[in-house]
């Protein structure tokens, strides 16, 4: 059968040349999305508000991309066995990033952050010694 | 409960502002990956071979990105219900794009094309009138 | 004489390493431009309208780039001999992409689509078996 | 008749919002292409040579893009009337940029520079006071 | 001692493979920033104004990036010795590019241009024969 | 006097709309540079080695860009007063990123990491509660 063999090969090759994966990258961008939504809500200057919409869009796109890379490149079949919710969780998290582009509600950014944190928690379970709490706290320090 | 509500909202918003989704974009890039692998194998010129590795890498990255966008932005909960293999299929397809970066084997590109075609077939089933066969034939015409 | 020699060399090298060229890429982006203009016109939500302007701008830029690549990289001197309008057609098509950035009129997007379709028709004549009608129909299925 | 009307509109709109166009951008990148080809030829270090191929590729792509923008966005119908060779000149120049990616010969970079200079000369004729000679001399100062 | 050694190495390697550096690139983008701010001020069309904000943002970003590259890649320890204001000048110039994103005032763009011109003057002193005055005049010709 | 006033304005505006700044972004990319250099040294597969050179180049570029953004956008005049070495430190760190592109030595990546860590330590001093040690440890966990 073809596909299981393919996955095995991917896994083997990845051991040779996987890069550095870190949910901090998505978490930092998600924080920027939140800050932009917050500042949008607090401002009355139309140019500032336009720029906040635009910057939020770019940051949500980056959060989405970092999440996609984690999903496809970092996680492996044995992780999916252990965390069967993984595919659906990433799907909802990347959809939440899309939603955070469309909506100016601060709650849309909060939904994104919550899902990234859920992914960060799973990531930490797969990598002994990784401190996701520090990542979250560092990001929260920078809240608008 | 939070998350089902989120998905519903995403779905509703997407009806207002979803773009144009077309698996032809991923299929065209997958063909480029195949052509680059083929030309790499057929050449003895070291600079040509270096450029083939590089161009294959870029094209596989684009195939991966087009697949991620389809997965997150086009497909909706009711599609996943009807095609329960969807998440795993996209995971294997984007991993195959990664594999096609790493490997110079033409078979790695063929694996990617097969998975993109499987996704294209499902896409066509969700969009009455969409002709994925023509997409595939147009791409194959351009095979190296 | 220098330049004819240059062109001959380009042609020869291109046979060794040309990628995959497909007017479907420009056609898909032109459809996105049309959809964004349509949705802009139909909406009263200022943030939605801002995002439609921005997304239309990005998609028109991609349409422009795909057209430039086709013009420079795919078409060769013998095509220009057979289709003497080619240079002017691409010039007008890429200018129409620029115009579709500036104007919020749906007709600007329609002008772009018409010119891309004209190019697609010529492309099909240079590549026996290529089905541009299917490309056009697949794109129209996704009209806003 | 449709198309002449389109062109007129483009022209009018461009007067309202055209950016800053300057052939110096393409000339600088063409110089980088030349320097990379020169340094490639002069080196025996394989990593250095690989990087020179890659950097040359990126710089030639930028030269190509700057040329495309000049062609589509700066030049207008009355310029084409006055300089009937314009379309063909830009086609050859952007093809020369492609050739300068493929070939490691210094002469390929020289061909590109010659064509960019020809375009720069025409540009200067359309913009009284523009000093293209200074652009050329500044670039030549930085030759490898 | 570690760091002086590092700098020496950088300097030596850079002699082998430095690219082409030219303050004209930053100056051209700074002129675009100015033109966009001017046109924003002169227009009453809300879509045009939105696009001017966005285009100004992108051009200021490019000016910033060209300045960073000059600072890190072109200038060397002996230049900093001769022009001790160099670090602070680049810091203020890149901050002025950021300011020119935020502010719609034409004076913000003028501040950026003045700092780029100051850098261009220093650059010319480090490169005998380089004509920065021509760069400035060419850019000014294209003022909105 | 002009410039001090400019800086004051920048500072004030930044309070309204600065994003999220985090040295973790540069640290993660610096770790990737290190891993790529390490894997390059350990491999005998020429395609793998080519890809390691290329990936190292891209990651070093991202490290450089994250550093530039921190320098220009996060740090303010009062920080420079308190940490007078700041400009020179960033200059050496971004030059070390350039050096880590050129050199295949693992020590070049180590030099970059050391300078990023020095910047991270200063950043932590300017932001009470920020845990740079956790950032460093998380990155080191992913060493090749």
Describe what you observe in this structure.
Six copies of one chain form a homohexamer. Chain A is mainly alpha-helical. Chain A has a single domain, classed as Four Helix Bundle (Hemerythrin (Met), subunit A) (Up-down Bundle), CATH 1.20.120. In chain A, 81% of the residues lie in helices and 0% in strands. Chain A is built from seven helices and no strands. In chain A, helix 2 packs antiparallel against helix 3 (46-74), helix 3 runs antiparallel to helix 5 and helix 5 runs antiparallel to helix 6 (106-126). The radius of gyration of chain A is 17 Å and the shape is elongated. The termini of chain A are far apart. Residues 1-16 of chain A have low confidence and may be disordered. Chain B binds chain D through residues 47-48, 50-51, 54, and chain D through 50, 53-54, 57, 101-102, 104.
Total strand segments of chain A: 0
Oligomer: homohexamer
CATH architecture heading of chain A: Up-down Bundle
Radius of gyration of chain A: 17 Å
Calculate the mean pLDDT score of chain A and round it.
89
Could you name the CATH class of chain A? Answer: Mainly Alpha
Low-confidence stretches of chain A: 1-16
Shape summary of chain A = elongated
Biggest sheet record of chain A: none
